[in-house]
Amino acid sequence: MARASDEPKARSPLEEARATLYAAPLEEFVDLRGRLAADLRGRGDKELAKSVLALRKPNGPAWGLNQLVRQQREGRAVDREP
């Protein structure tokens, strides 16, 4: 029997948007954030759109570390440049 802690938690819509944004290439962050917010506004979720627009673009080193962690979680090999 699976314990409750073994089952994945459902993500909130904001967590989903955050995961999408921070997984994207850094140069696409601002445009993608705007598109996600526009889509949410179009669906009538103005508060969530406002929250998505408040997500800050990471600096380069923070984005790179985030990508490493994502790759390791997914079990992918990490590319290392010399």
What do these coordinates show?
The protein is mostly helical and 82 residues long. The protein has one domain. The chain contains four helices and no strands. It has helices at residues 13-23, 29-42, 46-53, 60-73. Helix 2 (29-42) packs antiparallel against helix 3 (46-53). The longest helix has 14 residues, at 29-42. It is globular and about 35 Å long. The N and C termini lie far apart (47 Å). The mean pLDDT is 87.
Q: What is the terminal separation in angstroms? A: 47 Å
How many helices in DSSP terms? 4
Helix/strand/pairing class, anyone?
A: mainly alpha
How large is the radius of gyration? 15 Å
- Main sheet summary: none
Q: What proportion of the residues form beta strands (DSSP E)?
A: under 5%
Rough outline: globular
**Tally of extended strands?**
0
What is the count of distinct domains? Answer: 1
Q: Low-confidence segments, ≥5 residues, pLDDT <50?
A: none
- Helix content class: 55-70%
| Arithmetic mean of pLDDT | 87
What string, H for helix and E for strand, traces the elements in order? HHHH
Summarize the structure.
By secondary structure, this protein is mainly α. The protein has helices at residues 13-23, 29-42, 46-53, 60-73.
